[in-house]
Amino acid sequence: MKIIMTKPSIASEIAPTGRLRVAINLGNPVLAGKNPATGALCGISVDLARELAMRLGVDAELLDFDGAGKSVEAVRAKQADLGFFAIDPVRGEGVSFTPPYVVIEGGYLVPTHSLIVKNEEVDQAAHRVVVGAGSAYDLYLTRQLKHAQIVRAPTSPSVVPTFLDHQLEVAAGVKQQLQADALQFPGVRLLPGSFMTIYQAMGIPAARSPAALGFVSDFIEEMKATGIVAQLLRRHHIEGAVVAPPGYPPHG
Question: Is 109 helix (H, G, I), strand (E, B) or coil?
């Protein structure tokens, strides 16, 4: 990867402790996970965090969280200097977003015997939809669902176990994770298509200067334009996610 030197003032603002403290969300398997053999954090967000730290001339300190909501709060509270989040207006309170680096989809999982066959049929009063508390799906569906009841699992990885244990009607989450769950657990099926498009970006505390946000945003745009993001998606065997187009999303 190309190394770009940066002004000490920008580095000290983005990483004021002398280390780049990065919130890593383990609730989204598209972004990050743990090496099953070593337990070390790995994934596209981990690689991007380390590359940015190198650009700033500091070490990366990776702070792992089991849900997006917790990692957002760490950045808001300035306990972390940077995180990887879905762009959402609620999360925008206290967090400034870069342009997105990847686009992923949100999907629904239902029991095999369910009469639901389309995404549009989910929003009914008789349906309970389980989501990870504080996830992008929780925030989005809280705004969009008018009739169905939302049930919040503690974390995104616990959505399908909660769905099965409580015999709920619908599970919502990262489409790739639900596809994997459908292969692991009998008696479930994934609805075709997606109910939302998710733009994943870096987020820094909103109190950081426009120059700091500009530096991190330029970094993300370079990672996309030079093919690094596409390379990382291939390296980590991520299917279904695509490199985000240049700039901010239409409603970002």
Answer: strand
